[in-house]
Design goal:
The chain has 325 residues and is an all-alpha fold. It is 39% helix and 0% strand. The longest helix is centred in the middle third of the chain and has 17 residues.
């Protein structure tokens, strides 16, 4: 078994504000605590422009039995993060084998919605209350406006869950499989391999409303919403690179690369070309003009390796919110 991602010891200041580990389902049963509703920027938007134009990629329908990523074996990263605690652990050899078999049934064309599903499940986290986060609650939130299009992604998760339970006799939570499939989506589209810990507990009810980051906020509002989750500006910029997938105008919609950042610096939405004006979403367009975000964008535009390393670290961070010490 490969070692988990290297981790960073939290500072004293971080130690004082970090939330306690998520309580078990039994201790929460019968309660429905809620934090105060807030609005903040959406991390990831589903592919739409390619679908509307009727374009399809030939690879989007293929079954990837020969392309199963090795993300469960580990990832290198220039950044470090707080160590997951509680029930989170590395998957066993049996669990890895079952997951690999389950992933063989998933087509590459599902990658964009599966990655988006991760951020919609984890993006409800509130550092002050410790509520929300990667807990599988998104399956109760599909009727919300921000969840448009996620139903088909959740169906894939459910199919994989049933498959590995039937064939491999392995029972993983929806919360774990959402994270696992998000990591698979990144790697199968050419992104970094990422180590995934498991042991998340599924919520039995939806998280509070109005917690998913809103895409129309200014850059400062976006940064504040990420801070609410315990994430910083680098996490914001790195995770926004997920917009490379899904047909929003950042190169090939099924290729995970740093074209997103190169495009942000070009600002095609200011062009006189009506097609270029449609590239990106509002939360993308405000980033290159922010003094904190721009140097990070420039770094990733010039170094895909730096982007991959930071994305892997930030992905591990957002998918363990509520479980960190």
């Amino acid at each position: 078994m490969a070692p988990p991602i290297r981790v960073r010891r939290p500072t004293c200041e971080q130690e004082r504000v970090r939330p306690r580990a998520r309580p078990t389902r039994a201790s929460c049963e019968g309660t429905s605590p809620r934090g105060p509703p807030q609005r903040a920027p959406r991390v990831c938007e589903e592919e739409s422009s390619c679908a509307k134009s009727g374009r399809r990629h030939a690879t989007s329908l293929c079954v990837l039995s020969s392309l199963i990523p090795q993300f469960l074996w580990g990832v290198r990263s220039e950044r470090t993060l707080a160590a997951p605690v509680g029930s989170l652990r590395a998957p066993t050899a049996r669990e890895r084998a079952a997951i690999k078999d389950g992933l063989s049934q998933v087509s590459k064309g599902k990658a964009p919605v599966l990655l988006r599903l991760v951020f919609h499940d984890a993006g409800t986290f509130d550092r002050e209350t410790g509520r929300g986060g990667p807990n599988g609650s998104v399956r109760f939130e599909l009727d919300r406006p921000e969840s448009r299009g996620l139903k088909r992604g959740l169906k894939v998760v459910g199919d994989v869950k049933e498959s590995i339970a039937a064939k491999g006799k392995v029972d993983l939570s929806y919360a774990d499989l959402i994270v696992v499939l998000g990591a698979w989506a990144v790697e199968v589209c050419g992104g970094p391999r990422m180590d995934v810990l498991i042991g998340r507990i599924d919520a039995s009810e939806p998280d509070a409303e109005n917690m998913i980051p809103d895409e129309n906020l200014p850059a400062q509002g976006i940064k504040e919403s990420f801070a609410r989750m315990g994430l910083d500006t680098l996490d914001l910029v790195a995770l926004s690179g997920s917009h490379a997938l899904g047909g929003k105008g950042y190169g090939d919609p099924l290729t995970f690369d740093n074209v997103y950042y190169k495009t942000l610096l070009e600002k095609p939405w200011l062009s006189q070309d009506s097609m270029k004006q449609m590239i990106g979403i509002p939360s993308d367009r405000v980033l290159p003009d922010d003094l904190e975000c721009r140097p990070i964008i420039e770094k990733y535009a010039s170094s895909q390796a730096a982007f991959f390393a930071d994305f892997a670290s930030s992905y591990a961070k957002i998918t363990t919110l509520g479980y960190s010490s």
